[in-house]
Amino acid sequence: MKVIVCKDYAEMSAKAADIVAAQVTLKPNCVLGLATGSTPEGMYACLVKKYEAGELDFSAVRSVNLDEYYPITPDNDQSYRYFMNYHLFDHVNIDKANTNVPDGQAKDGAAEGARYEALIASLGGIDLQILGIGQNGHIGFNEPGEKLYPYTHLTDLTPSTIKANSRFFASEDDVPKQALSMGMGSILNARKIVIMASGAAKHDAIVKMLSGVMTTQTPATFLACHADVTLICDEAAYNG
Ligand code: F6R
Q: Whole-model pTM?
């Protein structure tokens, strides 16, 4: 894994945006795998700035998001569809019809997982997957446990993730208890992966991820299998 240590959140965001911009420039109709959460917010802001400066054209870009709470409606301001519109899609010339987020209103979670995998395949796979990392080492909502799942699936959130994500909700009780998430295979099939981490709270997860030992108890350790992964983190995440 290639590691880029930045001095702070702003530098991490700018570096990650540079990589996304390079991908869009090299392949204007690329498929971007996108993440939500606090970590990539600054990166999306940098991409909007580049677009406004006339440096980027998203008109042919396709996107697939990693995950979505379940159940949730797209107009709920905590949904990941809402997040993506708010932070990126509403501010650039991407065609929203080409943007995809798992359907938090799907009746059948398993069928939605199968539909999402077929969709990714029909787009020709993911060119660049952006990831954040949970304090517990999750990627997407592939949570630590005895088992990991290869493809998009409905999953229970762990108490630690519910607690970490409660900062966005009125109370911990309001956090959905399930999510639809790409699986480990959906992620590892991406041609290139960038994983971002900011802040000392992510230090332990980063240390485990870089240890070279793979365990389902720290899903991010499976990124060691992939030939083209770059960790972009700040000093606080790297040094603790
Ligand atoms: C979000 C996602 C999650 C987050 C992770 C870190 O789409 O898949 O795995 O990347 O929970 O979240 P933040 O960035 O809020 O610390």
A: 0.97
